[in-house]
Amino acid sequence: MDPWPDAESWAAHNVRHFRRLLYAASALFVATEVVAVFGVVPHLRPVSLQDISANILFAIGFGCPLVLHLSSLPRLRELAGAAAAGVVLALGVRQFHRWIGVPDEYKPEEVVVAEAVTGLGLASLGAMGLRAWRNTGSERAKALAFLLPASVALVITMEAGIFLYFIKGICPTSCDPSAYAIDAASGAHWSFIVGRLFVEAPVLKFVCYAIYVAPPPALVFVYALQTRARRPPPVDAATVLLAVFVTGYSLYFIFPVCGPLRAFGDAFPQSPPPLDGLLGTRMTVLGADAWPNGMPSLHTASVLLAYWQARAYGRWARTAAAVFLIGTFLAMLGMGEHYLVDMVVAVPLSLVVYAACMPSRSVYRTQRRDALIAGVVLLAIWYVILFFGIELLLSSPVIVWGISLGSTAAVWWLERRLDRAAIANPKMTSLPMTDTHPT
Length: 439
Description:
Blueprint lengths: L6 H31 L11 H6 L1 H16 L4 H25 L7 H27 L2 H34 L2 E2 L1 H10 L4 H11 L1 H11 L2 H14 L8 H15 L8 H5 L18 E2 L13 H13 L4 H20 L5 H18 L7 H24 L1 H5 L2 H27 L16
Antiparallel strand pairs: 1-2
Helix pairs in contact: 1-6, 3-5, 3-6, 3-10, 4-5, 5-6, 6-11, 8-9, 8-14, 9-14, 10-13, 11-13, 11-15, 13-14, 13-15, 15-16, 15-18, 16-18
């Protein structure tokens, strides 16, 4: 593998790219927050510091600066200072919660994790900002290549808070009965089965939960590997992460689900309810932490994309990404956050986002086009099935598994075909977004 011809230009490219993304994300956040404050759009409410710092779903965004800071290999003095500042900030966030309180629906253990991650994430962001301010030239560009995507991730997290409330207002009822029926059509209620396993094995539940809250940092870690690699990737992981968020949140409006824990309450995981009376109905979304954040599962898309992009960086990177993939898969089922069909539909979505984010180069243009078109078609087929084909799926488990495994296998083949075409090219040492091949 040849070294980059100009690593400084690659870092400068990243700085320009993420600076533009930061400007756009910040402008969008400010605009939506102002619109929400003045009540111009119904159901659009401003996100509060309480929500961002107490809800683990939003606090995940603070894990991105933390992971990027650690991945930048800071000096011991800087690391110790950031850790000390993180503890102080986490205690400050905890005191803030004591003053204003947190909703009863938030689990105490999740609030503690959110407080710790928020404090450490803010401290990491400050440490990276200080490093960028102190350095000049190429060293400053390298520092900004870590600082800017961390800042973008944080702004996107706050924007996600606004839109989750908006989706909840627009979609007061969910399609959980239909998703539950599709899982049942496969022959078993998989989320309930894994949920009971977690009850019997709390250590496994804890490990999977820790993995579950970290898919965005997992992709960010891959981005850190890419910034240190000798060869530029076709597309950076941070951009892919942002793209999957934007696309996934848009799809939530089409087929909103909250997961079996929120839909069936105390019945999860011990007592799967019968399908009689559920099929064809919708459920009311209740609870401060009940979000229509599916379909599809963006956690699945995140870890799957991380696995795809980690393959180029050796056995240990692939192994770590595989652990995230398996742990997230189990956590989403066992914690009652998603259905199996959620994860299956996320597979073609991942392919669509990955192919769309890759720059159009002649050397793999055909493979990229095929992956993009096929991914969109598979995604559309799944949504047609979700709305009109549940009765067909209930007729036989063979149909459910045939469609699920068939679409997953097709995505896997198309992604490997695209990856081989992009990575195997010996001339792929040019800077990203630059096509060095004649059309």
